[in-house]
Amino acid sequence: MSPAPTQLTCEHLSSFSPMDFLTPHYRQQLHASLQYLQYPAGTPLLQRGERSVAQYYLLEGRVSVDGGSAGKQHIEGGSTQAHLPLNPGQSNPASIRAVTAVRLFAVEHQLLQRLLGWSQEAAYQVSSLGEMQVEEQEDDWLARLLATPLFGRLPPSHLHALLARFEYVEARAGERVVGYGEPGEHFFVLKRGRAQVSLPAAYRDQPALVLERGDFFGEEALVSGAVRSASVIMLEDGELARLHRDDFVELVRPTLIPRISKSDMQRLDRQGQRPHLLLDVRLAAEYRLGHQPESLNLPVANLRTHADSLDRATCYVVTPEGGIRSELAVHLLNQLGFEAYLLGDEQSAAA
Length: 351
Prior knowledge:
The chain is α+β, with helices and mostly antiparallel strands. The chain has three domains: 10-112, Jelly Rolls; 138-253, Jelly Rolls (Sandwich), CATH 2.60.120; 257-344, Oxidized Rhodanese, domain 1 (3-Layer(aba) Sandwich). The protein has 13 helices and 20 strands. Helix 2 runs antiparallel to helix 3. The longest helix is centred in the middle third of the chain and has 21 residues, at 109-129. It is globular and about 65 Å long.
């Protein structure tokens, strides 16, 4: 039996179930999120009946599987059985222990379920098109949108409604799509063309940001309820997909602010997942008046400028004391490519 590669290729990932049902695009997205874990012999890996946020697959070594009344068995890395998840579903059906030193990879359960749903949706759309030919470039903006952290948590059930509620509008070169200081009424995606983000005079020393096909803007004002923080001007003729505030709040906003409970954080610790850090995003004066133990103060206004100093291997959990600022911070962190959650109680985190 040949040793498993240090990291899986997308092609190798397709040999594991149910990743073989993913479209190449969504398999690539899942591949980028894989976590690799190593444990010495004798390590308890999973406890029967315990809830897991990830599905685990055995790459190397041997594990014992105790399914209670279902019996016991051993699984070897590289075997046919090792290409199935050790814990299908979110509730572990068996207790699993490392017999030898083992190497695993983990897939976030909810992400996998979303990508499977999107893959099935894509297959449905392709089959419903029949003989119609759709240029790949025409759909590229949507593929890029769905690959972003903003839409990475969108339930498949919302995808149909989202596409149905988008309005498509033409925009001319030089046209101002949104203006600094204006109230936010729509969320926008560039379907075709390019646009430039124009910042207020106080921030003109920052490099100009150019938006291209599949890039989006306008969500921050809809998340925070504040006015537009910048203007967006078309650099060339193009087309925009526009979503009204009410539709954004209904379909997208709930997925922008993923929540986690303290008990879920404790499970992540026990399962050897990535370390987490509590962030309090209120002003320093508010923080000094009282804060959660072990929380670090980083005001939301400083998140973008301090992003380079944050560790991307760390999961950031934002405390809820900041209210809408805490929600905005979670969104900004996820938008910047970090993994971030809002700390909530058991009921809100499960919602």
